[in-house]
Every structure is written in C-alpha cells, then in structure tokens.
Amino acid sequence: MLSCAVAEDSVRLVVFLGAPGSGKGTQAKRLAISNPKIVHFSTGDSLREAIKKATLLGIEAKAYVERGQLVPDGTMIRLIESELEALKQVDTVVLDGFPRTVAQAEALEQSPTTRVTKVYYFKLSHSILVERLSGRRLCSNCSEPYHVQFFPPKVAGQCDKCGGKLIQRNDDKGDVIETRLAVYESQTATLLEYYGQSNRLITIDASRTPETIHDELARWLM
Ligand code: AP5
Ligand code: MG
Q: Which of 69, 97, 68 lies closest to 173, judged by CA?
C-alpha cells in the first residue's frame, strides 16, 4: 500500500472524475499535448494495452473490463503505485479513470510522493453520455478518440493523426454501456462527496465544445 507523510516536492495529481463518456480522455490528451509539464495517465488505456498484450494484469482484468465492471481495488492500487513511481520526476499528472472507489481515493491520499491538488468533475446528462459512448471510435494504433457524428475522421475508418484503423471498444456496445453507467453511479459518484468535503472539487459543464472546455482547463492548470 502507498504510505507515509507527503514530501514538499511531491508530484501534483489532478483527478478527472466523471461518468464513462464524459470527455475525460479527450481533455486529458489535449492538455498533455499543449503543456509539456503535464503527463496524462489513463487506467483504462493501460488496462486495454495489458489485455491486448495478454500480460498477467491483462488476463486478470479482461473479464471485468468486458462486462463493464470495476477491476478489484487491490489490482488497481498496485497499478497506480508502480505508475506513479515511474513518474516521480514529473510536475503534474492528470489521472483519468483513477480513483473510482473510496478505497482507491484513500490509497492515493497515503502516497508520500504525490498530492491530489484538484479534482475536476465532468458533469453530463445520461442521454448525452449514451450518445457519446455509442458513437465513439478509437484509433487502434494511437488511441485518438473520434465520434461518428461529432468528430468524424477526414477519411472514414482511418485516424487523421497516424492513419491507424478506427475501432469500436467492446465495452461501448449494447448493454455494457448501461452497466458502466450504473457502476459509475453506485461505486464512483460517491467520490464527489469525498473530494467536496476537502474543497478540492471543481465542476465542469461537459456539454460544451471540447475547445471551450480545454481553454478553461488550460487556464486553471497553467
Ligand atoms: P476507461 O477507459 O477509463 O473508461 P470510462 O471511465 O468508462 O471512460 P471513457 O473512456 O469511456 O470516457 P471518457 O470520459 O474518457 O470520454 P472520451 O473523452 O473518450 O475504463 C474502462 C474500464 O477499465 C472500466 O469500465 C473498468 O472496467 C476498468 N477500469 C479503469 N479504471 C479503473 C479503476 N480505477 N478501477 C477499476 N476499474 C477500472 O469521450 C467520449 C466520446 O465523446 C468520444 O467519442 C469523444 O470524441 C466524444 N466527445 C468528447 N468530448 C466531447 C465534447 N465536448 N462534445 C462532443 N463530443 C465529445
Ligand atoms: Mg477515456
């Protein structure tokens, strides 16, 4: 487990909290491109990579991710612990998809080398979340997100950035979308209260354009 007192020169952690499809990944990627001091870490991207490579982590996580359930806390805390160890020289890490339970948030609070300074909550209605998730496509090579209606690629089925093939995530299909949204409500939404109590929570209206949201976040995270 992560433990001890926080050092003065600790890494600044900024948490992006929000339901599946609320735009966390889109914004975190843009921020990391626009500001060299910021590193983006997505637990979902990391798990999908591990599943693709069939590592021990991937083999354990596969069934949970495919069903839209959370991977057990112990596994996720070990993953974040090793990731943050590798990023200890970094100024700011945007955590996209972690924490997702109170146990994960408490583990983060115990870290001697990092401190959660701000938590941005991406607020969006259920109907827009479903629309965004069901229309999302991802580059199979560089993970750049697209949307069939809102952000189609210039050439159908092909990534504008690297030419990679666009795919649909298995958990963006059918009933799994509703399962993920229900899991968010039952296990993750409670973190709004958790971080609200320590005055670190900032709510973002995630229904606006990506550019407007990016400009706002970039100003705050300068
Ligand atoms: P993860 O990959 O983190 O998925 P998620 O939280 O379900 O979030 P998404 O990636 O689906 O949405 P997003 O908010 O990043 O939205 P995006 O920017 O892509 O996790 C996957 C799975 O891994 C979990 O279900 C779980 O099994 C496991 N897992 C991960 N972390 C875990 C943890 N800590 N503990 C336990 N298990 C864990 O945008 C969505 C779409 O909308 C895109 O098409 C995009 O182009 C579009 N869009 C974005 N912004 C806008 C906008 N402003 N206007 C219009 N369209 C927009
Ligand atoms: Mg994402």
A: 68
CA distance 48 to 208: 28
Calculated CA dihedral for residues 15, 17, 20, 24, nearest 10 degrees = -50
The two counts, helices (H) then strands (E), for the chain are 9, 8
Q: How far apart are CA 156 and CA 164, in angstroms?
A: 11
- 24 among known catalytic residues: yes
Q: Which ligand is nearest to the CA of 144?
A: 1
* H or E, element range at 103: helix 102-109
pLDDT band at residue 188, thresholds of 50, 70 and 90? very high
Residues with Cβ < 8 Å from 60, sequence gap 6 or more?
71, 75
Report CA(9)–ligand 2 centroid distance (Å): 29
Question: Tokens representing 190?
Answer: 């409670």
Pairing of strands 136-139, 201-205: unpaired
Paired with 145 in beta bridges are 138
- Residue (of 100, 78, 79, 95) closest to 16 by Cα position: 95
pTM of the predicted model as reported, rounded to 2 decimal places:
0.95
Any bridge partners for residue 191, and if so which? Answer: none
CA 42 / ligand 1 centre spacing (Å): 9
Tell me which residue of 120, 117, 82, 76 sits closest to 98, measured CA to CA: 76
pLDDT tens for residues 107-117? 999 988 899 99
Q: For the chain, give the longest Cα–Cα distance.
A: 52
Enumerate residues 6+ apart whose C-beta is below 8 A from 83: 41, 46
